[in-house]
Amino acid sequence: MSSSSSIADSPPAGNPQAPGVIYVQGVPTSDTRLTLGASILVSPMAIGTWAWGDSTWGYKPEMFDDIAATWEALQEESSGINFFDTAEIYGRGESERIIGRLLKRSEENGKPKPVIATKFIPFPWKLNYPSCLLNAAKGSMERLGVDVIDLYQIHGPIHLRSIEVVADALAEAVKLGLVKAVGVSNYSIDQTVRMHAALAKHGIQLASNQVEFSLLRRYPETSGLIAKCHELGVAVLAYSPLGMGRLSGKYSAENPPPSSRKFSNYPMTELKPLLTIMERIAKEHDVPMTAVALNYTICKGTIPLGGARNPEQARQNAKALGWRLSDKEIEELESVALIGSTGFIWQHG
């Protein structure tokens, strides 16, 4: 796949047959499909499943039924969402095991298999590449109950081995048929460029870079990361697009989110101007505030990963499709949005 020309030369976004379209250029709909790594077709929005099985989010086994109902609601044709993101570290593999159970249930019921992305955690003490990555991929495959991983991502730039060594390991996973497409997460512009070039030597397109992006952290756009990724044909996946619930309308200064939710951890009093504008726009479009936050990230050329732990949350997320914020509305939102920052160890992008 070519780099910057892949977008300009392709049919309009939303055409499932359009090769190389990595972000929505018009109105996102339930029929829109984007192409990652020239190999997988995904909806313009994904479901992040960190909360499925992880104690960070207060998960308990009795919550499985709600998650199963959420999965089934999302498999309704009207939702249009076919993309789920997990990681080996979420609940120490429990998130993957839950998805594995749900995939098996869908297969038994004759439902189409959604696209599943997961991640390899490259702890600094993991030095023996490619074996550490390949073994981790096989472990994820076993927990998910799949023969191949659709999208396999490096969870963060915390590896001590060079990007080129890690790229060689990802390429080996592709060549062995363990994964279809490969991506990264929390990578800076320079790191993304290096990984893209290293994979290109193997004839492999870097599919994605997953970074925190929302109205509470516009840094990936203002830094030029999103534009550079698009130039390289790399899709941008936006995690925490709701600011860990802060943009959902559920929380306020009087009722703040749990202290464990560290991303975009601003006092709710500072967010009141933004939330006021979001609430007005939501009413004008007859959608929940979550849909405004998610639609914003789509308008900025990313694929948001909104969390959902019950069917109602899933349906609210789906209402981000079928319309698009106007330029004036985006300008209003950005007048009170926050830029955010990077982290020395984890969040480079």
TrEMBL record:
Transmembrane segments: none
UniProt keyword Ubl conjugation present: no
Keywords: Oxidoreductase
InterPro entries, per database record: AKR, Aldo-Keto_reductase, Aldo/ket_reductase_CS, NAD(P)_OxRdtase_dom_sf, NADP_OxRdtase_dom
GO cellular component, one term: cytoplasm
A Pfam family: Aldo_ket_red
GO-annotated molecular function: oxidoreductase activity
Disordered as annotated region, ranges: 1-21
Domain NADP-dependent oxidoreductase intervals: 45-336
PROSITE patterns the UniProt entry points to: ALDOKETO_REDUCTASE_2
Protein name in UniProt: NADP-dependent oxidoreductase domain-containing protein
Species this chain originates from: Mortierella polycephala
